[in-house]
Amino acid sequence: MTFAQTPPPPYTAVIFTSTRSAGDNGYEVMSARMVELAAQQPGFLGVESARDGLGITVSYWADESAAAAWKQVTQHVIAQKRGRDVWYDDYQVRVATVVRSYGPDGLR
Amino acid sequence: MTFAQTPPPPYTAVIFTSTRSAGDNGYEVMSARMVELAAQQPGFLGVESARDGLGITVSYWADESAAAAWKQVTQHVIAQKRGRDVWYDDYQVRVATVVRSYGPDGLR
């Protein structure tokens, strides 16, 4: 997992923070499949992910409607239900509009 | 590290994605100090952090001006310089306005 290569703002970030329940229960396979599937959606810009206890996944989208459309994709809806029922102890989703972005060399 | 307890949107999220250089070089101590110091700033709402290779830290602020003021706090300016020079191979900062937030039980 590495940096998402996003365009200049504005664009949409979906910040997904979670704690996992015990056991894999098919999580790793489905998680990888969801990243692949997300990458095929219109308006997908990239995704960044890290977990050590708390997990944080930020997916980036061209706009809010692209992010909202991904939320409704059938296989993703099924994964979301399994997430609520089995994989996650708790989670929080925050939808945000990125207004500024910079790295060590300035704006990008 | 656990979930940030944020109020209903809108508020500001600063998404800091990074890769570390080799060695600690004072990073862990300074990192903990910066979290403590951030928590004392006006408009601080919370912070969430995870790292496994890629590191993602999201800090939450009442508004953009609160986030911008934290960027200018002297000890934080010093830490930012040391981050650029020593601790991070690369990083990206994205400032975003959270417009919607929900968990497994709906809006919160």
From TrEMBL, chains A, B:
Oxidoreductase listed as a keyword: yes
Domain ABM: 11-80
Keywords, ordered alphabetically: Monooxygenase, Oxidoreductase
Top-level taxon in the UniProt lineage: Bacteria
Membrane spanning residue stretches: none
Any one Gene Ontology molecular-function term assigned to this protein's record: monooxygenase activity
PANTHER family, alphabetized: ABM DOMAIN-CONTAINING PROTEIN (PTHR37811:SF2), BLL5343 PROTEIN (PTHR37811)
Protein name: Antibiotic biosynthesis monooxygenase
Species in which this protein is naturally found: Microbacterium helvum
Higher taxonomy: Bacteria, Bacillati, Actinomycetota, Actinomycetes, Micrococcales
